[in-house]
Amino acid sequence: MKTFATFFLVVLLSFFVSCQKIVSENSSVYFEKSNDSIQNGGVKVIPITTSKGTFNVWTKRIGNNPKIKLLLLNGGPGATHEYFECFENFLPAEGIEFIYYDQLGCGNSDNPNEVALWDLGRYVEEVEQVRKALHLDTTNFYILGHSWGGILAMEYTLKYQHNMKGLIISNMMSSCPEYGRYADEVLAKQMNPKVLAEINQIEAAKDFANPRYMELLIPNFYEKHILRFPSKDWPEPVNRSFAKMNQSLYVTMQGPSEFGISGKLEKWDRKSDLKKITIPTLVIGAKYDTMDPNHMSAMSKLVQNGTYLYCSKGSHMAFYDDQKAYFEGLIAFLNKSN
């Protein structure tokens, strides 16, 4: 019995040492320095060519993984990469490399103040220029697009999926007309009728600068469907990102608020084209989202190689209000498709 116990202990110890060695090796790769002569925290500023000239966009790499490089496309349009900072508490521990990226007009990137550049097709070509500059390809390149970033991710994938390894569509429907109908026919009906009447009155008058508009929307819509905490308790990275919102870009593309859509994207619809997406695709929906979770589930079946992740406690920013479900599902997808 003692001999067996000793043997078992030796095997267990050997296994533990091997695991520690693997973790150590993976960690050394993940945290290895770049080949640049000066280490700058993984920041790379990329010149982007447009019809209005060349402008710089800002990126920052977190970690190193030759097989998984996840480019994050923020929402808004016009917010910043900063609201994704919670990813730092989950992905590095799994050895997953991810890349912050402020789209043109957002955050640390140039803002040309040129409405002609607030265009979906142009942003697709911007992402492709970023991909090339960062040397991302079919062996490692994943995109996670959240909200507006999900529209951009779908549009990019439909044109350039031959350069990609996988796609994550987070909290975005594939049809803006259906998104608008969901807001009007489902979410609006959950509101207090008096509140809804006042919101409709302000919108009819196009009096969007009226502070009463957000006074009504924040407790009655944003705290229920965007991020399910009292707004006074919203995470600092979210507040910091939203405080920097490029209103010109946001209103041009989305309209004056998250309560439906009325900007340039109002008629955008790629639902019938999802069948053309062949790469592994994860679609993330949430129970309380501004986006219809049933539509999101259907999207995962329309693509050729899709998976659906449902966040039963989450809203539009489920990576904050349903973190366990969101990150467990995201990490499992990335590891499985790797």
Mind telling me the C-alpha Rg?
22 Å
Classification by helices and strands: alpha/beta
Q: Work out the helix count.
A: 11
**Helix-strand string:** HEEEEHEHEHHHHHEHEHH
- Proportion of residues in β-strands: 15-25%
Compact overview of the structure:
It holds the Pfam family Abhydrolase_1. The protein is built from eleven helices and eight strands.
Structural topology:
Layout: H1 2-30, E1 43-50, E2 53-62, E3 69-73, E4 97-102, H2 120-134, E5 141-146, H3 148-160, E6 166-170, H4 176-187, H5 193-204, H6 211-226, H7 236-243, H8 247-253, E7 281-286, H9 293-302, E8 306-311, H10 318-321, H11 323-337
Parallel strand pairs: 3-4, 3-5, 5-6, 6-7, 7-8
Antiparallel strand pairs: 1-2, 2-4
What does this structure look like?
Residues 8-13 and 15-25 have low confidence and may be disordered. The termini are far apart. The protein has one domain (48-338): Rossmann fold, CATH 3.40.50.1820. The protein has an eight-stranded mixed sheet, with helices on both faces. It has helices at residues 2-30, 120-134, 148-160, 176-187, 193-204, 211-226, 236-243, 247-253, 293-302, 318-321, 323-337; strands at 43-50, 53-62, 69-73, 97-102, 141-146, 166-170, 281-286, 306-311. By secondary structure, the chain is α/β, with parallel strands linked by helices. The chain is built from eleven helices and eight strands. Residues 1-23 form the signal peptide.
